[in-house]
Amino acid sequence: DAGVIQSPRHEVTEMGQEVTLRCKPISGHNSLFWYRQTMMRGLELLIYFNNNVPIDDSGMPEDRFSAKMPNASFSTLKIQPSEPRDSAVYFCASSSGQGARETQYFGPGTRLLVL
Amino acid sequence: AQKVTQAQTEISVVEKEDVTLDCVYETRDTTYYLFWYKQPPSGELVFLIRRNSFDEQNEISGRYSWNFQKSTSSFNFTITASQVVDSAVYFCALSDSYNFNKFYFGSGTKLNVKP
């Protein structure tokens, strides 16, 4: 079975540009999570969807960040405009069931560098 | 408040040595879940184990074993006869009913296994 798929794997952009990260969860999973990993802050939950509905977006840093899940097999995380401090590895994870009770399976991550 | 502490920032061992990674958690809840993930140098997060608070049996999987002790709020991970391929950052995580929307990750322990 295919795992969580993320694209692109690497992204280099200039400050002020729009960045869109994509995620395809494991088929049949109904929970999807976006995380950001940095050396300073570790792994941070940005947003959690259940059945395509955003349930908890308290971790989204600011209005520059937005996330959507138009259907069960696709989600996007958008940063507009991007800033150098957004440089990080962004992970998407999916699980069956509700919330973080169940095991989350992570994608390979998108390494974002904003110059 | 929920919290996961991995006090060992970095551990270095020689191949074939046994090594234990410590994880201490805090929660006021009686129902909670504990997880371990491995992050090898390639960067992906790999699921290792999930344990619920009602199951205190220790678990063994090949060279890996986990010791869950509710009395000390610990969920330690032991690798027996370590190998170079075990070199990675290992994360312990907690979820509980106060906020089932998220994992509380520890800061991780970097394990270096030298040949």
Short note summarizing the structure:
Chain A is 0% helix and 54% strand. Chain A contains no helices and eleven strands.
Structure, explained:
The complex is a heterodimer of chains A (115) and B (115). With 115 residues, chain A is an all-beta fold. Chain A is built from no helices and eleven strands. Chain A has strands spanning 5-7, 10-13, 19-24, 31-38, 42-50, 53-56, 65-71, 74-79, 88-95, 105-106, 110-114. In chain A, the strands form two sheets. In chain A, strands 2, 4, 5, 6, 9, 10 and 11 form a seven-stranded mixed beta sheet that branches. Chain A has a four-stranded antiparallel beta sheet with strand order 1-3-8-7, with no helix packed on it. The mean pLDDT of chain A is 94. Chain B has 115 residues and is mostly beta strands. Chain B is 0% helix and 57% strand. Chain B has no helices and twelve strands. In chain B, the strands form three sheets. In chain B, strands 2, 5, 6, 10, 11 and 12 form a six-stranded mixed beta sheet that branches. The mean pLDDT of chain B is 94. The A-B interface holds A 33, 42-43, 45, 48, 55-56, 59, 89, 91, 93, 98-109, 111 and B 33, 35, 37, 43-47, 50, 91, 95, 100-103, 105, 107-108.
What's the SSE blueprint?
The complex is a heterodimer of chains A (115) and B (115).
Chain A: E1 5-7, E2 10-13, E3 19-24, E4 31-38, E5 42-50, E6 53-56, E7 65-71, E8 74-79, E9 88-95, E10 105-106, E11 110-114
Parallel strand pairs in A: 2-11
Antiparallel strand pairs in A: 1-3, 3-8, 4-5, 4-9, 5-6, 7-8, 9-10, 9-11
Chain B: E1 3-5, E2 10-14, E3 19-21, E4 24-26, E5 32-39, E6 46-52, E7 59-61, E8 64-69, E9 74-79, E10 88-96, E11 99-105, E12 109-114
Largest sheet of chain A: 7 strands, mixed
Residue fraction in strands of chain A: over 45%
Stretches with pLDDT under 50, minimum 5 residues of chain B: none
User: SS-based structural class of chain A?
Assistant: mainly beta
Instruction: Tell me, briefly, the overall form of chain B.
Output: globular
How would you characterize the largest beta sheet of chain B?
Answer: 6 strands, mixed
> What is the distance, rounded to the nearest whole angstrom, between the alpha carbons of the first and last residues of chain A?
37 Å
Summarize model confidence as the mean pLDDT of chain A: 94
Largest interface pair = A-B, 24 and 18 residues
Number of helices of chain A: 0
Catalogue the unreliable spans of chain A.
none
The residue fraction in helices of chain A comes out at: under 10%
- Radius of gyration based on Cα positions of chain B: 14 Å
The count of β-strands of chain B is: 12
Overall spatial form of chain A: globular
| Helix percentage of chain B | under 10%
Computed Rg of chain A? 13 Å
What would you call the structural class of chain B? mainly beta
Count of alpha/pi helices of chain B: 0
Strand residue content of chain B: over 45%
Separation of termini of chain B?
Answer: 41 Å
